[in-house]
Amino acid sequence: MLKLPVLNQEGKVRGEINLPESIFSYPVKKHILYEAVVNYLANQRQGTASTKTRGEVSGSNRKPWRQKGTGRARAGSIRSPLWRKGGTVFGPKPRDYSYEIPKQVKKNALKSALALRYREKKLLLVDDLSFQQSKTKNAVELLKQLQVDSALVVDLADNRNLFLAMRNLPQAKAVDARCLNVYDILKYKWLVISQRAFDTLISRFEP
Asked: What is the rounded average pLDDT of the residues 85-91?
């Protein structure tokens, strides 16, 4: 049976919890972690880059000079891609970069990421992550007490003070348990989860 200590905000052990082996004993499959990260980053792309072709740049359709007799190279338009301020050939156009991977692959990738953090002993379970005020210093003190330098903190979105306190820290990020993804888990060294968020997270793997 896999076990994990439950800490308070001061980093002291308050109890112990049993972990589901189907999740935290799952093999770390690097190839699906890779697929999940690439998929996440692709889905974040705006795809708004755009360039103008020779038919879209401004300029006259008049032939700059006659075809023969000038000694110059022949030219038919000042909007030619060969000319300065001319159109772009094969430039980017707005497009959708997002794509879907199978739901089971996405679920297994999340299992792999959680199992990885557990095996590295970089998974912390905290009984409560609520703050009285949404002060950055409260978030700094929490990380200091837990002795973590780079952490992804997981709770539920209704804990507004936590999310506001965490948003100014470059080395930490707070996310809702229902939005937890592989990219964020791998980006930060430590994974800190509240007890109620842990229950919500486990429910995501129920059939």
From this structure: 96
